[in-house]
Amino acid sequence: MSTTSDRTAAGRASAPPLPGPSGPSAPAAGRRGRTRRQSRAALWILILPFTVMFAAFFVAPIVFALVQSLFTVRSSGLGFGPPETAFVFLENYATALGSASFVASLGRLLLFSLIEVPLMVVTSLALALLLESGRARFPRFFRVLYFAPYGVPGVIAALLWGFLYIPATSPVLQGLDAIGLSLSPLSSGGVLFAIANIALWGFAGYNMFILIAALNAIPSELYEAARIDGASEWSVTWNIKLPLVRPSIILVTVFTIIGTLQLFVEPLVLRPLTTAISSDFTPNLAAYNQSFAQGNPNLAAAMAVIVALVGFVFSFGFLRLVNRKGNRAW
Amino acid sequence: MVRSRRQPLGSVIAVNAVLVLAAAYFLLPLLWVVIAATKSPGDLFASFGLWFSDSPQALENLSRLFTQDGGIFGTWVLNSVLYSAVGAFVAMVLSAACGYAIAKYVFRGRETLFSVILGGVLVPATVIALPLYFLLNAAGLTGTYWAVLLPSMVSPFGVYLARIQANAAVPDEVIEAARIDGAGDLRIFGSIATRMMVPALVTIFLFQFVTIWNNYLLPLVMLNDTKTFPITLGLTLWNSQTQRDPMFYQLVVTGSAVSAILLVALMVSLQRFWKADLTAGATKG
């Protein structure tokens, strides 16, 4: 829209750089009004479809869950007559947090995050650094190979690892057994690690990809300069590479935190193989059960909201922690 | 870039040894499932997992896989392709338009809108799926293809990528020049800007494709007719029947092998289009 006046005498070349379609514009009558209206219309056409879909399939469910979590459905009187919906404020939250098994599942989820997040970040970072160290023989080949499991759905990954976790079908457990090591990944002590391994297998290559891209973005003059100064490979890694890919490490960490909160599929698939996984092993499983097996969607909504809150506290807590000193990453 | 330097042999060997070990780890389950898919149901549990049995029967397993329950596995594959391709394509178009508009137009509430959309990236999908079931149920959509397709068309992460890419790759001067030549805003977006945003568009499409393909919870809560199932849901249905009939183990194994190979092949062939640096550069934006 802000273009008409630029057409005159001075022409395009000397036109001031414009910050954007609706940036500051020279006064011009008539045509300008028309283009402005066209521009506004275009803006709406570009923005509305996504925004409407986002409102319907992201915002509305969250609002609905919030509202739903404040109500309960009671059978009226002696249990005859239609059930009625009653506003109970935070009662569902009190019920959820008063339930020992739900609190235990939250604790389990936190423990799982403590195992999974460092494991994921360190592994993907190590793979990225090794592949980009200049010492790898076939970096492209290895990169594609590590990335491949990302294409395997979590359900299928859990099914596959499930077979590798039971002695009858697992060549690994059979091999370890032959040398006198007997592992039982699906025991109550090992099952969180068994699940963490499935998630690591699926996503380490993807996170490695993000970190490699960040490493590649570092100007190579920095390395040259450091080497002329006699810096060792370790020192280059610590003092140049890690600080410069910090924003990407933070991104990977936040995505992994959010990923761990979704824990649902793996325990669901592994459950028939072990007694160590209960029907409310994770908060998401508990909410799913409340919703569809126990028929209490209101309590399920409260549980889902609690998980989302834990997620926000974790993500923002982590971002605050890393942004407190030094440069902001986000 | 560092390769020209003299490298100590010891560290080269150590680095490559670690990389080979990691490769073995990432390959192990895939290798196991491909080998297991060639075995008879009996040999599945009776022979060594990482080598073929004496009587491989890959073709027999495959034909059983595609004929079981009236050939429903083929339907599941097609459903997965339909959900993923259509969902990802629409998601790409919607996010590209919205991301471009946020990057290139100044309007009231722009940053608020962007923050809310970014917040969407941080909400676990599991938190949305359950309430969404009740909403779509009220709308009479549960049990239909739409119940999975419609929510799959929204990718907040895509908007994020599109905004970054529009800022980086579509110069304001080009937009201005096109306007001077009389092109309308929508035409500028449709035929000029989108071409400059191709790397981001491909990444958004692939990212969403894999996300939909791998999604389990959404189809689990939304669908009840096995004819509308994607592969993930179908295979867990069969897996739940293994207690009743152990023959289903072989079906689950062969089905897992086929679907894993399908997607790994897609990943590997398309990985050069997968611009991870967009996601990485995004954090600096």
Provide structural commentary.
The complex is a heterodimer of chains A (330) and B (285). With 330 residues, chain A is mostly helical. Chain A folds into 2 domains: 4-68, no CATH class; 97-324, Orthogonal Bundle (MetI-like fold), CATH 1.10.3720.10. Chain A is 65% helix and 2% strand. Chain A has helices at 31-68, 91-98, 100-131, 139-147, 154-165, 171-178, 191-216, 220-228, 233-244, 246-261, 265-270, 283-292, 297-324, and strands spanning 71-74, 84-87. In chain A, strands 1-2 form a two-stranded antiparallel ribbon. In chain A, helix 3 (100-131) packs parallel to helix 7 and helix 10 (246-261) packs antiparallel against helix 13. Chain B is mainly α and 285 residues long. Chain B has a single domain (57-282), classed as Orthogonal Bundle (MetI-like fold). The two termini of chain B are 27 Å apart. The relative contact order of chain B is 0.13. The chains are: A mainly alpha (330), B mainly alpha (285). Chains A and B meet through helix 1, helix 3, helix 4, helix 5 and helix 6 of A and helix 1, helix 3, helix 4, helix 5 and helix 8 of B.
Helix amount of chain A, in percent? 55-70%
Let me know the number of strands of chain B: 0
Could you say what the CATH topology of chain B is called?
MetI-like fold
Largest interface summary = A-B, 116 and 111 residues
Strand content of chain A: under 5%
CATH class label of chain B: Mainly Alpha
Helix content of chain B: over 70%
Major sheet of chain B, described briefly?
none
Concise summary:
Chain A is mainly alpha-helical and 330 residues long.
